[in-house]
Design brief:
The structure holds two protein chains of two kinds.
Chain A (H helix, E strand, L loop, with lengths): L6 E12 L2 E12 L3 E5 L6 H9 L6 E9 L5 E5 L10 E4 L11 H12 L3 H14 L15 H13 L5 E5 L7 H18 L2 E6 L2 H7 L2 E6 L2 E6 L1 H6 L4 H6 L4 E9 L2 E4 L2 E4 L9 E7 L4 E4 L7 E10 L4 E7 L4 E6 L8 E6 L5 E4 L5 E9 L2 E4 L2 E4 L12 E6 L4 E4 L7 E10 L4 E7 L4 E6 L8 E6 L5 E4 H5 L1
Parallel strand pairs in A: 3-8, 3-9, 6-7, 7-8
Antiparallel strand pairs in A: 1-2, 1-4, 4-5, 9-10, 11-12, 11-14, 12-13, 14-20, 15-19, 16-17, 16-19, 17-18, 21-22, 21-24, 22-23, 24-30, 25-29, 26-27, 26-29, 27-28
Chain B lengths: L1 H26 L16 H8 L6 H34 L2 H16 L2 H14 L6 H26 L4 H7 L4 H29 L3 H6 L8 H10 L7 H30 L1
Classes of the chains: A alpha+beta, B mainly alpha.
Chain lengths: ~475, ~270
């Protein structure tokens, strides 16, 4: 695994806050020499902040960034780069909106870094021409950068960075501003460039297909935390939690129960699987990719059946939604079309079932005791079931609430507290929502109602569904 | 009919605006001592300015020299100060930024007399002996906000990553400022400089209160004193005409240049 000889950047326990908002929480990550690493996540997950800290534009609050460093004596060492300004770091960045210098032409933009280093004029000349050729922009050296198209500006921005022969190239969503066709062409070129140059690439994107196409290693981030690190194939086939499964590709995420090793129950049936070590009769999340469900009107070895609800042609395959005999909805992709309304038989291979530990089985919320039947939670007062043990006003406690017992209201005033729908996961027969309260805490809700991301909702919980444990109760 | 009325309105307005200047310009081509008498076409007054044969003589020439020197120094310093302040203000956030931008606007709205008197009191309070230095300091203080105002929009148009890109490519912060930021802001700085120069050139009130008693005269204070002595020195007529023409030419050049750069960036 971690072999120090090959590591070029080592990040340990990095945290960063802007005001009250913590953008990065305890990030640890190492990057091998020559690797193409992608930081992938939705906007606001902290990926750009992490990149800017590596570049030196931001300083971490906590933690260290170690980097391979050529010292003056020609020796290569590994050093902490805290406090070292960006212009001294052996890295170069390709910025989101190119950030070319409009007052310089293509040649001078690319030569900018070399001129600062005092490289002799004829060497600058050969190096600039070489990178121009590499990015296929040879005839453009005298052009004004503002007269170039978006794709051409992007190439100049890449050339301007790699001409300095950095140890690591940082790319901050470099293709986000290009149209789809151009983006796909540039992806291929970037990949080729990476192989040709042998430089380590750290690439930031929110586009999961881009990450899967380009990377050797994908780092999936959400809410300032690393969710999973792995090869594109690992990340796709073996997501560690429902966020990763949902974010990467398309998937059916279902509630299940681990019967025992190599046997899992979901959508009302027992399935053989290859996963072990989840205990017996423990709740788990199960991921089935849409292309991994085999369909047929008559299917040998079928495990369950269902009714086709809809069938849409998607180019190479058909995308179907099928209601199973147990009332779950599955998204399925197949090269053959199946008629809506017909009954079909289905089968899933043990290899294609990905079992994940549930991140949580109920809400556990920090609260404060007010009296025997009232607590303060999300900054509001809630009535709760009688608190066991000695009740001391103002004492910290934990409230346990089942996902299905949280009611969401259309109007914020109708609930005891209010919040915003933050994240939605479809679980086959119900939605699992993450609601961010006004106090900034998260509450998880199972519901059959349809909500949209960003909806403002009232949060209502019946007193008997709030089980409070005080600190001394937990000790027992 | 309505159209005719609108056209007439514009013309009346323009005539009212430019009549005094045209009047002065016409009478600069005659030798009469009192303004308004036409004694035949002559370039004699123009000749006087360049040969030094002015009736006011050396003191008018000294006033012109003082005016230009003060304007040049004040405009240069306020351009530097204003540009640096604009960059600082641009990088502030939220309420702080709004407050400082508001504070920057006050000196521009403030009547010159008040600025002049308050600076006068300040210099007295600080026991500054008044003269060149105080006039220049005063001019810098009221010109700088105009520079800030003309540089700010250029900063807004700039790609915010440009400065970081320069650092990333190995430039020290001061190199990034010189090689990337300043060239980007240059058009704003030039128009700020010209604005500051003309503001300083035609200032009367502030100069009057801060020049002290060493007998420092600029063009505006000279004309004021001259007019009070009884009638304008006739050579001031061609002088004003020349200044107006130079400003007009500068303005035309600036506009043409602006139109051209707009075309090339498109």
């Amino acid at each position: 695994m971690k072999d120090n000889k090959n590591v070029i950047i080592d990040i340990e326990h990095l945290s960063k806050s802007f005001g009250d908002h913590q953008v990065l929480k305890d990030i640890s990550l190492y990057i091998r020499k020559g690797e193409f690493v992608t930081l992938l996540g939705p906007s606001g997950c902290g990926k750009t902040t992490l990149l800017r800290m590596i570049a030196g534009f931001l300083q971490p609050d906590e933690g260290t960034i170690m980097m391979e460093w050529d010292s003056k004596g020609g020796k290569t060492e590994f050093r902490d780069v805290a406090g070292i300004p960006p212009h001294q770091r052996p890295l170069n960045t390709v910025f989101q909106r190119y950030a070319l210098f409009p007052h310089l032409d293509v040649y001078d933009n690319i030569a900018f870094g070399l001129k600062l280093q005092g490289v002799p004029k004829d060497e600058i000349d050969t190096r600039v021409r070489k990178v121009l050729k590499l990015v296929s922009m040879s005839d453009y050296e005298d052009r004004d950068v503002e007269s170039l198209s978006g794709g051409q500006q992007q190439r100049v921005a890449i050339a301007r960075a790699i001409v300095n022969r950095p140890k690591v190239l940082l790319l901050d969503e470099p293709l986000a501003a290009l149209d789809l066709k151009m983006r796909q062409d540039m992806q291929i070129e970037l990949k080729e460039m990476h192989q040709k140059l042998g430089i380590t690439f750290i690439y930031v994107t929110h586009d999961q297909s881009e990450a899967l196409t380009l990377s050797d290693t994908v780092v999936v981030m959400n809410e300032g935390k690393i969710q999973q690190i792995g090869t594109p194939i690992d990340i796709y086939n073996e997501p560690v939690n429902s966020f990763v499964a949902d974010f990467i590709g398309e998937s059916n995420i279902l509630n299940g129960t681990m019967v025992h090793d190599r046997k899992v129950n979901f959508i009302g049936h027992d399935f053989d699987c290859v996963d072990e070590g989840f205990g017996e009769n423990n709740p788990v999340d199960v991921v089935i990719r849409p292309e991994d469900v085999y369909l047929g009107y008559e299917l040998e070895g079928a495990q369950f059946s269902g009714t086709v609800k809809s069938c849409v042609f998607k180019g190479v395959h058909y995308e179907m939604y099928v209601d199973t005999d147990s009332g779950n909805e599955l998204q399925i992709q197949d090269y053959d079309a199946f008629e809506p309304g017909r009954t079909v038989q289905m089968l899933i291979h043990p290899d294609d079932i990905q079992v994940m530990k549930k991140e949580r089985v109920e809400n556990v919320i920090n609260c404060k005791v007010i009296d025997e039947t009232h607590i303060e939670m999300f900054g509001e007062e809630f009535e709760c079931s009688a608190i066991p043990g000695t009740v001391e006003s103002g004492a910290p406690a934990k409230a346990r609430i089942q996902f299905s017992k949280v009611d969401l209201m259309d109007h914020e005033e109708e609930g005891n507290a209010s919040g915003e729908v933050w994240f939605i996961l479809y679980k086959g027969n119900h939605y699992h929502l993450t609601v961010k309260t006004e106090s900034g805490e998260y509450v998880y809700v199972d519901t059959n109602d349809i909500w949209d991301k960003g909806d403002l909702v009232g949060i209502k919980i019946l007193p008997e569904d709030i089980i409070v444990e005080t600190a001394d109760e937990q000790e027992k | 009919m309505k159209k005719l009325f609108a056209q007439a309105y514009i013309w009346v307005l323009l005539v009212l605006l430019y009549a005094p200047i045209v009047f002065i310009a016409i009478f600069s081509f005659t030798e009469a001592r009192t303004l308004g008498n036409w004694t035949g076409f002559s370039l004699e007054l123009y000749k006087h300015i360049f040969t030094g044969g002015v009736s006011g003589g050396a003191s008018l020439m000294a006033a012109i020299k003082n005016t230009l020197l003060i304007a040049l120094v004040a405009a240069t310093f306020s351009t530097l100060l204003g540009t640096v302040s604009a960059i600082g203000i641009y990088n502030l956030k939220g309420r702080k930024k709004k407050t400082i931008q508001f504070l920057n606007n006050i000196p521009m709205i403030n009547p010159d007399v008040i600025t002049g008197v308050s600076l006068f009191l300040l210099f007295v309070f600080l026991h500054f002996s008044q003269g060149y230095l105080t006039v220049i300091l005063a001019h810098i203080s009221f010109c700088t906000p105009y520079v800030v105002l003309s540089v700010m929009p250029k900063l807004g148009q700039m790609n915010p990553n440009i400065y970081e890109a320069a650092l990333d490519l190995g430039a020290t912060p001061s190199q990034a400022l010189r090689k990337v930021l300043i060239p980007q802001l240059r058009p704003g700085m030039v128009s700020g400089f010209i604005l500051a120069f003309t503001m300083s050139l035609d200032d009367f009130a502030v100069t009057f209160f801060t020049r002290g008693t060493i007998g420092l005269e600029t063009l505006s204070t000279y004309i004021y004193a001259d007019a009070r002595k009884g009638g304008l020195t006739p050579e001031l007529r061609p002088l004003m005409t020349l200044i107006f023409t130079i400003i007009l030419v500068l303005l035309v050049i600036m506009n043409v240049r602006q139109a051209r750069t707009k075309k090339t960036t498109r």
